[in-house]
Amino acid sequence: MKNTIDLFGAAPTLMRDYQRAQLEIAAAANFDPALTELVKLRVSQINGCANCINLHTIEARENGETEQRLYLLAAWREAPCFSDRERAAIGWGEAMARLSEGRDRTDAYEALKAHFTEEEQIKLTITINVITGWNHIAVGFGLFADAATIRAAQAAQKALAAAA
Q: How many other CB atoms are there within 10 angstroms of residue 13's CB atom?
């Protein structure tokens, strides 16, 4: 689907506020940048969000992620290159992204508890919530922006927030 709407043109104040709030929440929830990008990427894969897959693949590489692990993320259960902590986070991301399927989340939550503090569990879940929101917006309206364009908009929003 091609872009159907200019979000910032149609609802500039609302989208600016949404973007600012999401950036602030994401920054507060980010306790491990490399792991955060893996989870954002996997959730975006499940949600079929090309825009977010593109952006978070680039950001994962910038955080030192290897090509091999990026390629194997979709098959993380079978790939030997992910730690137990990473598996727990990715598994939790999948469980949250697939809530509508009615699957039992007990195993995913037990793995999460074994590797993450309660604060980290909340931060990870908030991160999943944030990326899911962006996935819905991008997929829903057929958005695809170059990562440089997204970053420029994020920087402009941060500058506005700092000036306020």
A: 8
pLDDT digits (tens, 9 = 90+) for 29-78: 888 999 999 999 999 999 999 999 999 999 899 889 999 999 999 999 99
The CATH architecture that domain 11-163 belongs to is Up-down Bundle (1.20)
Between the alpha carbon of residue 79 and those of residues 71, 83, 86, 89, 115, the distances in Å are 10, 10, 12, 15, 19
In this structure, what DSSP letter does residue 86 have?
A: H
138 closest CA partner among 23, 12, 17, 19: 19
Banded model confidence at residue 109, pLDDT cuts 50, 70, 90 = very high
| pLDDT of residue 100 exceeding 90 | no
Q: By the 8 A CB rule, do 42 and 73 touch?
A: yes
DSSP output for 14-73: HHHHHHHHHHHHHHHH-S-HHHHHHHHHHHHHHHT-HHHHHHHHHHHHHTT--HHHHHHG
Full-model pTM: 0.86
User: Which residue, 31, 42, 37, 26, is CA-closest to 119?
Assistant: 31
**Rounded to the nearest 5°, which phi and psi values hold at 110?**
-65, -40
Phi/psi at 149 (5° precision): -65, -45
